[in-house]
Amino acid sequence: MQGSKRLLLAAALAVAGASVLNSVPAEARTVVYATMEPPALRVERVPPPRHGYVWAPGYWSWGNRHYNWQRGHWEHERHGYHYAPARWERDGNRWRYHGGRWDH
Predict the structure, then answer these.
(1) Distance in angstroms (rounded) separating the CA atoms of residues 50 and 46
(2) Are 38 and 94 in contact (CB under 8 A)?
(3) What is the mean pLDDT of the chain?
(4) Which of 29, 35, 38, 79 is most buried, most CB within 10 Å of its CB?
């Protein structure tokens, strides 16, 4: 009986933990700034459509004082939302990164 109680408690904690992770607001992101303008986006060959998924195009990430290309990838579709790809935006004399996200 003791083992089944532990198993039930572990399952309940796992479900509770997953619901907390899913409730984190989309705005809770790390802000990234770069001092150099990002390079032009690379041309990627987009694979054929995949049921239940949306293609997230590649983008330039910033790290160690230079840009690194991140290849496009599939994102699991979220019904009622549309995917906004990652982008860089000028912010004064620097560039601000906005990560890919799901908008309502």
Answers:
(1) 11
(2) no
(3) 83
(4) 38
Global pTM value: 0.69
pLDDT digits (tens, 9 = 90+) for 60-89: 999 999 999 999 999 999 999 999 999 999
Contacts of 86 (CB under 8 A, 6+ apart): 56, 57, 59, 70, 97, 98, 99, 100
Phi first, then psi: what are they for 21, rounded to 5°? -60, -40
Q: Are 59 and 41 in contact (CB under 8 A)?
A: yes
CB 88 within 8 A of CB 70: no
Cβ 74 vs Cβ 53: under 8 Å: yes
